[in-house]
Design goal:
Radius of gyration: 17 Å
Number of domains: 2
Strand order of the largest sheet: 6-7-8-3-9-10
Distance between the termini: 31 Å
CATH class of the largest domain: Alpha Beta
Strand content: 25-35%
Number of helices: 9
Number of strands: 10
Largest sheet: 6 strands, mixed
CATH superfamily of the largest domain: P-loop containing nucleotide triphosphate hydrolases
Helix content: 25-40%
Order of helices and strands: EEEHEEHEHHHEHEHEEHH
Structural class: alpha/beta
């Protein structure tokens, strides 16, 4: 469904990610693990067109990704960056509507869907996004990305600074959407969160993917966790 082959990239002439390969199947949640600073965020930005590509290729549903970042979103690549980056001076409803319309979808349908799946946003519908709590902004960022109707959703540190009840809500939504065929690649430091939703993981170190591992292997090998993840 999504395949990245020997992706290299970074910022300007600085190489950060080197020859990273991975794949995510339809209806599959895959974790991207590693210590801070190993290149997880940069790899995701390479996928969405926000980092400088220096080699490799990526395909979504068998088709090469377009060069333009906006076209990648229209072709089914959704992205929730670390730090959320909601539009602070737009309301919750407007944040969702803008994303939907940009990809050619109905704003009303997107808002209705978001409020059904993220009921915590309903009482905040007219509130400016910049006034929401960190957890509420994370939910809004997910709702906004899903309003584009992605085939693959990239999540970068979705639990950072988020209270446990909202983390649980995010996990339940992702598991439900997986059953509907959504593919998810999640970069995360919270191993417990990853193990609650993903059956498979890639481990990054110094800009490279150094290992592919299963959920069972991660749960049963504390030495591996200490060696590769520092946990």
């Amino acid at each position: 469904m999504f395949e990245a082959i020997e992706i290299s990239g970074g910022y300007y002439k600085t190489l950060i990610v080197e020859r990273a390969s991975l794949h995510v199947g339809r209806g599959e949640i895959v974790a991207l693990l590693g210590r801070n600073g190993v290149g997880k965020s940069t790899l995701m930005r390479c996928f969405v067109g926000q980092a400088t590509a220096m080699g490799g290729s990526a395909r979504l549903d068998g088709r090469p990704l377009p060069k333009n970042a906006a076209d990648r979103a229209r072709n089914g690549l959704g992205y929730v960056p670390q730090g959320r980056f909601v539009f602070p001076r737009l309301s919750v409803s407007e944040n969702i509507a803008v994303a939907a319309v940009a990809c050619g979808h109905s704003s009303a349908e997107a808002i209705d869907w978001a409020f059904v799946n993220f009921p915590a946003l309903v009482p905040k519908a007219r509130e400016l996004a910049g006034r929401l709590s960190g957890g509420q902004q994370q939910i809004l960022a997910m709702a906004r990305a899903l309003a584009t109707r992605p085939k693959l959703l990239l999540l970068d540190e979705p639990t950072e600074g988020v209270q446990p009840s909202i983390v649980d809500e995010i996990a339940q939504v992702l598991l439900r959407l997986r059953r509907d065929g959504l593919a998810v690649l999640v970069a995360e430091q919270d191993l417990n969160f990853c193990l609650s939703i993903a059956e498979r993981a890639y481990v990054m170190d110094r800009g490279r993917i150094v290992r592919e591992t299963s959920k069972a292997e991660l749960q049963g090998d504390k030495a591996l966790l200490q060696e590769l993840l520092g946990v």
